[in-house]
Write a structure and sequence with these properties.
This protein has 305 residues and is mainly β. Helices cover 7% and strands 48% of the residues. It has three domains: 63 residues, no CATH class; 106 residues, Galactose-binding domain-like (Jelly Rolls); 94 residues, Sandwich (Jelly Rolls). Strands 6, 7, 9, 10, 11, 13, 16, 17, 19, 20 and 22 form an eleven-stranded antiparallel β-sheet that branches. A four-stranded antiparallel β-sheet has the order 5-14-8-12, with no helix packed on it. Strands 15-23-18-21 form a four-stranded antiparallel β-sheet. Strand 6 and strand 7 form a beta hairpin.
Length: 305
């Protein structure tokens, strides 16, 4: 039996069948659980724990370290240029500095002459109670064969690792969008994962820089339309409730009929089937319970091996 008093929240879970069942987390579950759902416990109708674990994500199919064909510094930024054998969706910078907080931007080109900024991401290396380091830039779908990486507040970029992966189809996140000088995208719950924003406008021609700020990161790129209607994808890798979007209009009129939507890849839980109904999910517990939760998650992994 499991003591449920320490948990702040509970909800019924309806599953059928004897096999493993996928359960899709919603905003409330993200908002009131610890990272990785470490304080989630599932109990069956007899009061016994039900094993569960996070569903594995598709693995990257190509990962390659590219030779830097040109590098140096420009306007106070470290710059490195590479040629990619195929379009990539992730770039990780090898930076020798031990401590830094900066911004990395990726520019793409098909001919090594005309360059377009496609992504901007905060990078950092911090030390404290828990060390943290992130130097990865996510790219939208593209056909670029050349990439130029620019990073602030670092001495240089030593190497560039690129990845092309298999992506699960993204799902749109319900959100309210408040237009203004700074556009606020309200996802409704804290800690909601966001993997990309999609931005459109009915203005016939435009080229505007865009910046997206979240609680734990910043991203950006350029909104470009020269002909038919197009959707600009801004890669994200954040967990937040609010996204604040700023479009640099300069002296131009604001973009007409601006539409912004947030998208995320599915992050389902795998729950063992065949248990007496009804099942109940408990969450929002103290940190001390995390170890017991991980034991339950590991039990599922052992049974499925």
């Amino acid at each position: 039996m499991i003591a449920v008093q320490p948990f702040q929240y509970e909800r019924p879970l309806h599953v059928a069948g004897s096999g493993v069942v996928q359960v899709m987390p919603d905003g409330a579950l993200y908002a009131h659980t610890r990272p990785g759902f470490a304080d989630v416990r599932i109990v069956d109708g007899s009061g016994n724990p039900v094993p569960w674990r996070l569903a594995p994500q598709p693995a990257a199919v190509r990962e390659q370290r590219l030779a830097i064909v040109d590098s140096g510094r420009r306007s106070g930024m470290a710059v490195a240029r590479v040629r990619t054998p195929a379009p990539v969706d992730r770039v990780t910078l090898d930076i020798p500095d031990d401590r830094f907080v900066g911004v990395a931007s990726a520019y793409g080109s098909t001919d090594d002459k005309t360059w377009t900024r496609v992504a901007t991401t905060q990078i950092y290396s911090l030390h404290g109670a828990v060390d943290a380091r992130s130097t990865t830039v996510l790219l939208p779908a593209n056909d670029f064969r050349y990439l130029e990486l620019r990073a602030t507040h670092v001495t240089r970029i030593d190497r560039v690792l690129v990845t092309a992966g298999v992506r699960a189809p993204l799902r749109r996140i319900p959100a309210r969008v408040r237009l203004g000088r700074t556009i606020v995208v309200d996802l409704g719950h804290a800690n909601t994962p966001v993997d990309e924003l999609r931005i459109t406008s009915s203005t016939p021609r435009y080229k505007r820089a865009v910046e997206v700020v979240a609680r734990d990161g910043v991203a950006g790129g350029e909104l470009v339309r020269v002909g038919a209607p197009t959707t600009t994808i801004v890669p994200m890798a954040v967990r937040t409730r609010y996204l604040r979007v700023t479009v640099a209009n300069g002296d131009d009129p604001p973009l007409r009929n601006l539409r912004i939507s947030a998208w995320a890849r599915p992050r389902p839980l795998l729950v063992e089937g065949g248990h007496p109904q009804p099942l109940t999910v408990y969450y929002g517990a103290a940190l001390a319970l995390a170890a017991a939760v991980l034991v339950a998650a590991g039990a599922l992994a052992v049974r499925r091996a």
